[in-house]
Amino acid sequence: MKERMYYYPFYLRDYLAKTRHLSLMEDLAYRRLLDAYYTQEEPLPADPNACARLICMRDYVAEVQAVLSEFFDLTEAGYTNERCDVELDRFRAMRKGGAVGAAKRWAKGGDSPPTDPPMPTKNQKPRTTKKPPQPPEGEFGFAEFWSAYPKKDAKTTALASWLKLAPDDELRATIVAAVTAKAQTRDWLKDGGQYVPMASTYINQRRWEDQSAQGDGFWSEVGKEPWA
Fold first, then answer.
1. I need a labelling partner for 83 at 20 to 30 A (CA). Which of 18, 99, 184, 214 fits?
2. Would the pLDDT of 139 be above 90?
3. 171-186 b/e (C-beta count within 10 Å ≥ 16 → b)
4. Could you tell me if 103 and 21 lie in one domain?
């Protein structure tokens, strides 16, 4: 059975700063709408009456509508909330990776909790000053790529680039095959491999897509200075 979201960060001071103008029932509606959004892991119904029924506030449709208009965006899928989607995406990535230890740290807020307001209005974009917990090295087959790559420098930076790329099985196989072939060429073997680019550079610049990525002579054409 798929694990459901059971926790989301809530920053009291930020919340109060954004919601002091709400009435008592509007504040209650907002909290219940957030709970429903995270529990269902999907947008809220496009009909305010349906939202009011969903959170057991049928007699307060006007208050529910006011909160939806201020803190949510009406889309084809229903009412969405940008900050909620950020937290849901983070939770899904953690769930997909199956990182039990990372899950415990994330749930306790022990790694890198976001410092921006958890529930901004629809006109306010989330600010990210710290990186969220990263999946383990095994995510997206990084271990296989790192094993094949001949230059073993700046592994942490390479891992970050790999996780940002998030290759599927087909792309991962393509990259590993390209690296394996390139590692046997004259340009990557000469002078003790000093012309081999950093792994993060190889990933960020998608070097496996170059026409000469697996042939001799490609790196000799880009310059004589070794990569730093």
1. 99
2. no
3. ebeebbebbeebbebe
4. yes
pTM above 0.90, yes or no: no
Q: What's the CA gap between 134 and 142, in Å, rounded?
A: 13
- Which range marks the domain in which residue 73 is found? 12-108
Q: Are both 97 and 176 inside the same structural domain?
A: no
Domain total in the chain: 2
Between 1-5, 84-88, 93-97, 173-177, the lowest mean confidence (pLDDT) is in 1-5
Report if residue 114 sits inside a domain: no
Query: Does some domain include residue 48?
Result: yes
